[in-house]
Amino acid sequence: MFTKNVSQLTYSDIDDLVNIRKEREGYHLDFKGEFGNADKAKKELAKDISAFANTNGGFLIIGIDKKYKIVGVDNTIQKKSIDEWINQILNSNIDPQVFYFDPKIITLPDSEKVVVVIHIPESAKNLIW
Fold first, then answer.
1. Average pLDDT over the chain, rounded to whole?
2. pTM higher than 0.70, yes or no?
3. CA 115 from chain center: how many Å?
């Protein structure tokens, strides 16, 4: 998917993935647009992460809408930084706890919105959300 570690990704890498290579969602890639309802988003996020972990792993990229446009999301949700919010959801809603790499937060140029990239490796155990 990417030629470098997630921690080294930049906006250019996301732009290349979406607009140049035109990667689309599939078994190892899922895009999420903006979160309308935070409580609904919690369930969907836990479900998607556990689905990747229970199969062959993959990448969840938050801030790409259904038309494959990079729209970004707010950097805070429910008064928490987005990475703290994601970590809290995954630690409290998936059993056993899923291993994933820390979310990479990438700020959109000329915006306060961000794109979040989460790499989820395949889990040795089946996870329940």
1. 89
2. yes
3. 8
Tokens of 39: 């409580």
Rounded CA separation 102/66 (Å): 24
Q: What is the pLDDT of residues 96-122, one digit of tens each?
A: 777 777 889 999 999 999 999 999 988
112/92 Cα distance (integer angstroms): 28
How much is the pLDDT for 125? 64
Sign, CA torsion 30/123/47/85: negative
User: For position 60, what pLDDT does the model report?
Assistant: 95
Domain at 6-120, CATH homologous superfamily: Schlafen, AAA domain (3.30.950.30)
CA distance 100 to 120: 5
Q: Where are the domains of the chain?
A: 6-120
Query: For residues 13-29, b (16+ Cβ closer than 10 Å) or e, as one string?
Result: bbeebbeeeebeeeeeb
